[in-house]
Specification:
The complex is a heterotrimer of chains A (425), B (288) and C (273). Chain A has 425 residues and is of the alpha/beta class. Chain A has 2 domains: 2-143 and 299-351, 3-Layer(aba) Sandwich (D-Maltodextrin-Binding Protein, domain 2), CATH 3.40.190.10; 146-297 and 363-423, Periplasmic binding protein-like II (D-Maltodextrin-Binding Protein, domain 2, 3-Layer(aba) Sandwich), CATH 3.40.190. Chain A is built from 18 helices and 14 strands. The longest helix of chain A has 25 residues, at 2-26. Chain B has 288 residues and is mainly alpha-helical. Chain B has a single domain (61-287), classed as MetI-like fold, CATH 1.10.3720. Chain B is 75% helix and 0% strand. Chain B contains 13 helices and no strands. In chain B, helix 3 (61-95) packs parallel to helix 7, helix 7 (155-181) packs antiparallel against helix 10 (210-224) and helix 8 packs antiparallel against helix 9. Chain C folds into 2 domains: 2-32; 61-272, Orthogonal Bundle (MetI-like fold), CATH 1.10.3720.10. Helices cover 78% and strands 0% of the residues of chain C. Chain C is built from 13 helices and no strands. In chain C, helix 3 packs across helix 12 (239-255) and helix 4 crosses helix 11 (223-231). The chains are: A alpha/beta (425), B mainly alpha (288), C mainly alpha (273). Chains B and C meet through helix 1, helix 3, helix 4, helix 5 and helix 6 of B and helix 1, helix 4, helix 5, helix 6 and helix 7 of C.
Chain lengths: 425, 288, 273
């Protein structure tokens, strides 16, 4: 089975080359600029260097990527898609793909995705995130779960074993916390947003047995909710300044600068921690799956074809061609050569000898282990961003101390969720 | 001759007033219209729901908070700007030669000319807890980073400081130029009476400038309504909702969070009514 | 005079500090625009470094920045022009022919500034969407015209009031019609102050943010929007690039500093002196 897929991958690679040569003929009619609304991704920046290749392939089209930070990208793409729709390609993620597909702001990807680019080669986990109601909506750019990353040197010095359970984790954080010497126990996300503070809080909520909905009835106003929030707030005492209103950048930034002993973050952190361009902790870190009972937050981001901006089938095909090319094996190999670990999604690339050579066997093992505890933590529904963002604001208030009643916040969110559900006709 | 002139006045004034009226009233009426519906960005169908958006506003915790933050913002920025401006102007007038005064005026004009987005960014960077120039002395002395913008107690004041930075320096320049236009005799008379410097200003100069100072305060009150750019770039209304002003909240409701443009519009209409009524009354008071 | 010497020195020190406050943050941004990232992300500020033009090259090379620059120039230019076209004659007529309505007109023009920008932007967004003109330069220019016309009228009135009546009367005696008096006499004489007024409305429009943010999504984005997007990027913050884009955005308004200073002088002097 494995061999077979390897073989088919190789075959696809060969096919790919031949289609690039024949590309001008197969995709003629593409012209103008394909506008992409995205968030900063090294892989996409790398792509900009091969603009000419795409122009040749498409028979005359070029592309332009507008970048916004993650929260803004979510808001802007929603505003653009629901109004005028100027962008041909949207960067979507696990949290808003349900909304975008239900609102018909994006079209089924595979209808316009050239077969020779072999969608089946993508990691099955990522494919699952990209599929809603049996239809594939985006081609993955990045994705994964959570990883506990820790400073081996600090743990050894303090005589602390890498924690396996949440209790051990909390004890370790407290013991390692030493701000006078520039080391904080942990780093968390405080900034509002379903993909920001709520994202890091959810593993506690789900790990403690919390549930968002029971059918159409909100079920989250529970002990698990309060306990998860309390635990999260307690841990924040050991998180560096700036993280209370910061997100991924601030907390991983602090870790990569050597100011944090241990943290649980999305898997791309492991790749960045090994990247000499941004990391000051190379050679000092270890990785493990998140301590039990925490669940890893499974996620996936990718590119989807916009419905409004691509009026004709020909335009949709051009956007599809761009997405296929941008996420092609060839481009993933370029990212691999550039050391962009977190933006590799194709089985054929992840199992390639080049990958093993560059990142070592440890990381591969840790990735495989963490995949076992990776779960969908959020509510899979078009209305999730609304609910998550609403909670994100209250959570930010709790974290920064401008409100203190967890139970009150939970009740308020409950009321909001009820109106949200009631709106559904 | 006279008839011709009136004709000129009519041709010069009427089209402009018509254009302004269309540009101002069409959106206003539209805003009221939208605020009575339940229109959302994502859905094209909308129904009239009467005043329910307005009623909902008054049980909305964030709206009430935003109204309070806006009020605080208005008070703090207007008073800070006027006080700092008057003090700086007096110092410039007393302590500097006219040439130095003019040179300093040019320097003081710079902040207000900067796009607010730039001003916000320049200071956001200066207040950066790790790499900021303004927070560096604190960090060097105590070894602790200073994060003013994510502290709920200091965030609003820090943003207000940037606003005052732009406006107070600008107003100082205007006030010093006003002081220069005052006749010297009352000053000399007061000096002969051995009045102290501060007494001369408090009892002679400032009262003489009462009218322009009130106008300036009025202008600042109007301009303080435009807090959005600074807050959008510097805090986004955070931490929590401690710097969320009405325009920031209306924007979030309309765009960032839910696309509830009818709800956002009802907030905007309310703001419009309050500011128009308040400023009209103020203006008529000031003028008579 | 002698007994207040120390107080004067204290005042001078405070003024010096205020001047530093006005300049240093901007100067610091300017310096940072020429730094590599390593020289910016330092525990203590760095003053000596090898300058680089990379940040500016990157910023100017982004299509979005270039597009934003073009949009800003066209939108600001066109709306200031429209403001002058409609605003100057009105200001002249109001200044020269005071009537019962003059006060009302002045108040109406000023009251347009009371409208919260959000209150204008939300309905306009719907209007432009329905008209199929959302995210176009035309819709922005039309929207900004409200701002430029009212500002030009408001600031133009005092400028025309300062044109000596006698000069105009002499021109009339020479056989100039009322329109000729406006174009050939009043406009040229008041031109210095009027340029100040137009510069002011240009700066207002160039710096405008909220309306542009709500009325554009990609094609008609102005420079402040593009710059704010760059400053909010987040991930591995490219600080040097941010500083460069802020400097680029701020340069045009700062070019007007002399014009505005002269304008202030003339306004303040003549209305009070």
């Amino acid at each position: 089975m494995g061999k077979l897929s390897m073989l088919s991958a190789k075959f696809a690679g060969a096919l790919l080359l031949s289609t690039i040569l024949a590309g001008a003929a197969s995709a003629e009619g593409c012209s103008g600029t394909i506008k992409v609304l995205s968030q900063p991704r090294d892989g996409l920046t790398l792509l900009e260097k091969s603009k000419d290749e795409f122009t040749k392939l498409s028979g005359g089209a070029t592309f332009e990527i507008d970048n916004l930070n993650e929260n803004d990208r979510r808001a802007k793409s929603k505003a653009d898609a629901s109004t005028i729709g100027k962008y041909n390609v949207y960067y979507v993620d696990e949290a808003n793909v349900a909304l975008f597909s239900a609102a018909k702001w994006i079209v089924p990807l595979l209808d316009y995705y050239p077969k020779e680019y072999d969608y089946a080669d993508f990691d099955p986990g990522r494919q699952k995130v990209a599929t809603v109601n049996g239809t594939v909506w985006f081609a993955p750019l990045t994705g994964g779960g959570d990883m506990m990353v820790y400073r081996k040197d600090l743990l050894e010095k303090a005589g602390v074993q890498p924690p396996k359970t949440l209790d051990e984790f909390i004890a370790a954080v407290k013991k390692l916390h030493d701000p006078d010497h520039g080391v904080y126990g942990v780093a968390l996300r405080g900034q509002r947003g379903s993909g920001a503070n709520v994202w890091r809080w959810m593993p506690y909520f789900r790990g403690f047995g919390g549930k968002w909905f029971d059918g159409d009835t909100p079920a989250f106003d529970s002990d698990a909710f309060v306990k998860a929030t309390q635990t999260y707030l307690d841990l924040f005492q050991y998180s560096p300044p700036g993280t209370k209103t910061g997100s991924w950048d601030e907390s991983t930034g602090a870790f990569l600068a050597g100011q944090v002993a241990i943290l649980i973050e999305s898997t791309p952190l492991t790749g960045e921690a090994l990247d000499p361009k941004v990391s000051k902790v190379i050679g000092k870190i270890g990785f493990l799956p998140p301590p039990s009972p925490l669940t890893g937050g499974g996620y996936g981001h990718g590119l989807a074809i916009a419905a409004k901006a691509n009026k004709t089938d020909a335009e949709k095909k051009c956007a599809g061609l761009f997405i296929a090319w941008a996420t092609s094996k060839e481009n993933e190999m370029r990212r691999l050569a550039d050391g962009e670990f977190s933006e590799l999604n194709r089985t054929s690339v992840l199992t390639s000898p080049e990958f093993a050579k560059q990142f070592g066997a440890d990381l591969g093992q840790a990735l495989a282990d963490t995949a076992k505890v990776t779960a969908v933590n959020f509510w899979q529904d078009p209305r999730w961003p609304d609910l998550g963002d609403h909670w994100g604001i209250s959570l930010e208030e709790l974290i920064t101390g401008t409100r203190t009643d967890i139970k009150g916040a939970a009740d308020e969110l409950n009321g909001f969720a009820k109106t949200l559900v009631a709106k559904k006709q | 001759m006279r008839a011709k002139n009136n004709y000129l006045a009519a041709t010069f004034i009427t089209p402009t007033m018509l254009v302004l009226a269309v540009l101002a009233f069409v959106p206003t009426i539209y805003a009221i219209n939208i605020s009575l519906q339940d229109r959302e960005l994502s859905g094209s169908d909308a129904n009239y729901v009467g005043l329910s958006n307005f009623i909902q506003l008054f049980s909305d915790r964030r709206f009430l908070n935003a109204a309070f933050v806006s009020l605080k913002w208005e008070l703090v920025t207007v008073s800070a700007t006027m006080i700092i401006a008057v003090l700086l102007a007096i110092m410039m007038f007393e302590a500097l030669s006219p040439r130095l005064r003019n040179a300093l005026s040019l320097v003081f004009l710079m902040p207000v000319l900067l796009p607010r987005v730039s001003a916000a960014y320049v200071w956001k960077f200066a207040f950066h807890p790790l790499f900021g120039l303004a927070t560096y002395p604190y960090k060097a002395l105590t070894g602790q980073p200073l994060d003013l913008l994510s502290n709920p107690n200091t965030a609003l004041a820090t943003v207000a400081l940037v606003d005052a930075w732009q406006w107070a320096l600008f107003f100082a320049v205007i006030i010093v130029k006003l002081l220069e236009t005052l006749p010297p005799q009352p000053f000399e008379a007061a000096k002969l009476d051995h009045a102290r410097t501060w007494e001369i200003y408090a009892y002679v100069a400032i009262p003489m400038l009462k009218a322009p100072l009130i106008s300036l305060t009025f202008v600042k009150m109007i301009e303080s309504l435009r807090a959005f750019d600074l807050i959008y770039v510097m805090t986004r209304g955070g931490p929590g909702i401690t710097t969320e002003t009405l325009d920031m909240y209306a924007f979030s409701q309309g765009f960032i969070e839910s696309g509830k443009i009818s709800y956002a519009s009802s907030m905007a209409v309310l703001m419009m009514i309050v500011t128009t009524v308040a400023f009209t009354i103020l203006w008529k008071r000031v003028r008579t | 005079m002698n007994r207040v010497r120390p107080a004067i020195w204290i005042a001078r020190v405070i003024l010096g500090l205020a001047a530093a406050m006005a300049i240093v943050p901007v100067l610091w941004t300017f310096l940072n625009a020429f730094k590599n990232r390593v020289d910016i992300v330092t525990p203590a500020p760095v003053f000596i470094f090898t300058p680089t033009l990379d940040n500016f090259i990157y910023v100017l090379g982004r299509e979005s920045v270039l597009q934003g620059l073009i949009n800003s120039v066209i939108v600001s230019g066109a709306s200031v022009l429209i403001g002058a076209l409609f605003g100057l004659p009105t200001a002249y007529a109001v200044a020269r022919h005071p009537s019962r309505l003059t006060g009302e007109i002045q108040f109406f023009v000023l009251s347009l500034r009371f409208l919260p920008p959000v209150a204008v932007a939300i309905p306009l967004m719907v209007i432009w969407l329905d008209a199929g003109l959302y995210d176009t330069q035309l819709s922005l220019i039309t929207t900004y015209s409200l701002l430029t016309i009212s500002t030009t009228v408001w600031l133009g009135i005092p400028a025309f009031q300062r044109v000596p009546k006698e000069v105009e009367e002499a021109a009339t005696v020479d056989g100039y019609g009322p329109y000729a008096v406006f174009f050939k006499v009043a406009l040229p004489i008041a031109s210095r102050s009027l340029i100040g007024a137009l510069a002011f409305s240009f700066v207002l429009v160039w710096n405008e943010f909220l309306i542009a943010l709500m009325l554009t999504t990609s094609d008609a984005k102005t420079l402040p929007i593009v710059a704010s997007e760059l400053t909010q990027l987040g991930r591995d913050v490219p600080w040097g690039i941010l500083n460069a884009s802020v400097i680029l955005l701020s340069l045009p308004p700062l070019l007007f500093i002399g014009v505005l200073s002269g304008f202030l002088n003339s306004i303040v002097k003549k209305t009070n002196g």
